[in-house]
Amino acid sequence: xxxxxxxxxxxxxxxxxxxxxxxxxxxxxxxxxxxxxxxxxxxxxxxxxxxxxxxxxxxxxxxxxxxxxxxxxxxxxxxxxxxxxxxxxxxxxxxxxxxxxxxxxxxxxxxxxxxxxxxxxxxxxxxxxxxxxxxxxxxxxxxxxxxxxxxxxxxxxxxxxxxxxxxxxxxxxxxxxxxxxxxxxxxxxxxxxxxxxxxxxxxxxxxxxx
Length: 210
Description:
With 210 residues, the protein is an alpha/beta fold. The mean pLDDT is 93. The chain has a single domain, classed as Rossmann fold (3-Layer(aba) Sandwich).
């Protein structure tokens, strides 16, 4: 999250004081120890979001995620089917290798390149629009972007397919105030805490269409 080094440290200390149960996991998965989300099989979300989602998803759920990694393994252990969309062949190759080595058979990895500098071309891209081919219970927005914010476009695309029971997960949600303030969710939960393989505090927002 934004702020000076002192502000970030103060935010981290304050969050761990309020949520001391996260401290052992936070220390276990510090990046300095070489832990990466794909290696440990955990999403790069906040721990508070991870814990809530672990209770929320069921063995009958279908999960669609823009951007995969440790989250893909997390969902694969819990859901019936996972569809993961990637724009990088290198990353998709690595992800598929890990899935194959673990014997995971309920994940489909799609590869669709897009121009990260153009919102207009992104709107027409297969990366964004391939969600039209699936009916998901959980949609995760955690894909790659550079200076141009593309995750809000993913959010509103997912929202356009909204039906009762849909949950939309927006990671690093502190960056997207527009989505927080303009959505059609019946219930929104801001999960602010430390998380695996990162040093500071982050937020992952959950939007429930009921």
